[in-house]
């Protein structure tokens, strides 16, 4: 069956995997180069991570300050809740 | 409705590492490891920048989601206590 398929492909009647634009077989992947680091990707990933952590920590500190400020404003009138 | 209304800031903010942010950060890290596995790379040693990025995104999203969950729970509690306050007859403790 494989030989027959090879023959059919040679005749150009069956599209080979690179020719299939709309489907992507799991057995045919593009050649990724994992040896050389993708420095742009690495830089972007680390930069985004640093920015996200900075944003998160800044937001958390702002939340704490805002909560404390509102607690002071309220003057803690009711004793039933925290 | 907004994701986090202004009155949600009156609530005590959850700690930075709470169950939501830790779990989603862990899930992000796992998905980076899974990506390594599917692309036949060394699972832990490859793509550390990717692992850190996915974990960070998970922590960030988890923190926001926990804040929103705490706000929704507090809102429901407030409505519940208001209802109890307005209908004392239904909530007699000792006599009923």
Automatic annotation (TrEMBL), chain A:
Keywords: Electron transport, Membrane, Mitochondrion, Mitochondrion inner membrane, Respiratory chain, Transit peptide, Transmembrane, Transmembrane helix, Transport
Membrane topology: Single-pass membrane protein
InterPro entries: NDUFC1 (IPR026192)
Pfam families: NADH_dh_m_C1 (PF15088)
Transmembrane segments: 38-57
Compartmental location: Mitochondrion inner membrane
Subunit structure: Complex I is composed of 45 different subunits.
Annotated protein name in UniProt: NADH dehydrogenase [ubiquinone] 1 subunit C1, mitochondrial
Organism: Promerops cafer (Cape sugarbird)
Lineage: Eukaryota, Metazoa, Chordata, Craniata, Vertebrata
From TrEMBL, chain B:
Primary location class: mitochondrion
InterPro entries per the UniProt record, alphabetical: NDUC2
Highest taxon of source: Eukaryota
GO CC terms, sorted: mitochondrial inner membrane
Membrane disposition: Single-pass membrane protein
Subcellular location, record wording: Mitochondrion inner membrane
Family recorded in the similarity comment: Belongs to the complex I NDUFC2 subunit family.
Name of the protein this chain belongs to: NDUC2 dehydrogenase
Species annotation: Promerops cafer (Cape sugarbird)
Lineage of origin: Eukaryota, Metazoa, Chordata, Craniata, Vertebrata
């Amino acid at each position: 069956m494989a030989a027959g398929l090879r023959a059919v492909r040679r005749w150009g009647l069956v599209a080979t995997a690179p020719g299939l634009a709309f489907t992507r077989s799991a057995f045919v992947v593009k050649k990724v180069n994992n040896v050389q680091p993708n420095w742009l990707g690495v830089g972007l990933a680390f930069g985004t991570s640093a920015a996200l952590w900075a944003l998160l920590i800044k937001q958390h500190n702002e939340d704490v300050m805002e909560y404390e400020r509102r607690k002071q404003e309220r003057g803690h009138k009711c004793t039933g809740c925290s | 409705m907004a994701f986090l209304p202004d009155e949600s800031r009156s609530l005590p903010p959850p700690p930075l590492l709470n169950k939501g942010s830790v779990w989603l950060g862990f899930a992000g890290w796992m998905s980076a490891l899974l990506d390594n596995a599917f692309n036949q790379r060394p699972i832990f040693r490859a793509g550390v920048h990717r692992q850190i990025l996915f974990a960070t995104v998970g922590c960030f999203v988890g923190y926001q989601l926990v804040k929103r969950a705490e706000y929704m729970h507090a809102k429901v509690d407030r409505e519940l206590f208001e209802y109890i306050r307005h209908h004392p007859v239904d909530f007699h403790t000792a006599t009923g």
